[in-house]
Amino acid sequence: MLTDPRNSNDPLVQTAMALWDHTRSNRDEAYSKAWQIREELRPSNRHQAYGWVTATCGRIAAYRNQFDLSEALLTEAFGRFFLIDDLYGKALTTSHMAIPQAMRGNLGRGLHLALEPFHSGVEFASHDLSLMHSIAAICYGEQEEFSAAIFHLTNEYEIVKKSENKDRAPITTANIGVLLMRVGEFELAHAVFSETWKLEQARCTDPRQIDLTFLSNLIDVNCNLDKVKEAAEQAELLMVYLESRNHVEIPRTLFDVLAEVLARSGRVELAKHFLDVARAMPGGKLSVTHGKQIACTEALLLEMTGHPDLAIVALRELLADSETPLLGWSRRSACATLSRCYAKLGDKKNSELWAKSRMEVGRQNLLSEMLLGQIRANFRVEEPAVELTAQELNCLRLSASGQMSSDIGQKLGIKPRTVNFHFSKILRKLNAINRQEAIAKAVSANLIR
Asked: To the nearest whole number, what is the mean pLDDT of the chain?
C-alpha cells in the first residue's frame, strides 16, 4: 500500500493517524490514548490501525529516551505493516527505528535506517517527509557530518514552510540552530533561535503548553556569545514559566542551562539548586554527554566561588578524556572557563591559549558558504557589518601581498608590535583564527581586493 493512511476509510486508522500527527502538543494524552486503543486491538486482525497506534507509542517512547521500549514497539508495528504489505507504514517505521539506534551509539546502523525510506518509492505526505528529514539530520549530526545534517534540515524547513505547519516550524528551526552551535556559528544560531522562540509563542497561546526548550536554546547561545545580561533576563522568564510546570515533564538539559547562566551572573546558590534538580530527575542514568555538561557547570561554580585552581584541574581532566571527548558548545564553555581561571591566577600565557582554543571549537566542521547562505536567506539574516579602521585595512592589504609585520611597520611608519596589535583587533572583528583566514574573509566581504 503506497497511499497516505490518513486517506483511509477506517475510522480507527484515522484516529491512529491523528494521534501520530499530534504527539507534540499533548504527548502524555496521545500516548495514553494510543496505548489504550492498542490494547483493545491486540487480539484483532485490524493490522493497520494497530500498527499506527503502536508506532505512535514507539515514537513517543523515543522522545522520552526510553530506547529499549521504543525499539520494541516500532519493531512490533513494522511486523503488523509487513503482514498487510503496507509499504508506507514499513518505510516510516523504519525511519523512526533509527532514533534508538543512533542514541545508543550505533551510528552506522541508525543512519542506514534513516536513509532507507527515501529510496522506497513511497510518496510521503509532507508531514511524514519532514519527519524523515529530521531523523536523517539527527543521525548525520551524531556522526558529526554537519553539512549533510544541515542539508536535510533545510529540506525539512522548506517542506514545513510550504505546508505552513505551525506545529512543526519551531522544532525544525531549533534543530538548525543546534547544529549551527555545534559548528561554532553562534551569531547565526542566535538569529535562528530568536526566530524559533517567536514561532513557538505564536503557535501556543497557553503559557503552560509552550515548549521551554526553545527559550533554553536562546539562553544557551547568549551564554556562548558572552551576552550574560541578556541570558540572565531570559533565565528570569524561564523560571517564571517553570513555577507552573511539573519538573518531570522538563528535559534535564534545561536545568543545566539555567544553572550555567545563574552561575555566570553570580547567583551561585540558585545555580547549585538547579544542578541538583537535573541530577535528581527520574528517567534512568545521566547520559555521558549530559553528565559532562553538568561537570562543566560544576567547574564554573568552582570558579565563581573563588577556587579557579580546582576548576582548572577538573576541566583539564574532562578535556583529557579521549574515550568520551567533550564536544560542541560544552567544550567551548570549558575553554572559556579555563581562560578566565588562568587569568585570575595571573597566568596570561595559558589564559590566551585557552581563549584561542575556545574560538577554534567547531572550526574543523565549517559549513559551506552555500549552506550558510541558504540558512541566512531562509531566516532573512544579514551578514553582520564589519567596520575596520583605515590603518587596519592598510595592514590587511600589505599582509595580503605577502609582507611580514616588520615590512608592514616600515611602510606605515609604525612599530611591528603596533602592527601585531592591529591584527589582534582584525582577527577579533572578523572572527578569524589567523591572518590568512582574515584576508580571505576581508576579500569575501569586499573590504580589500
From this structure: 85
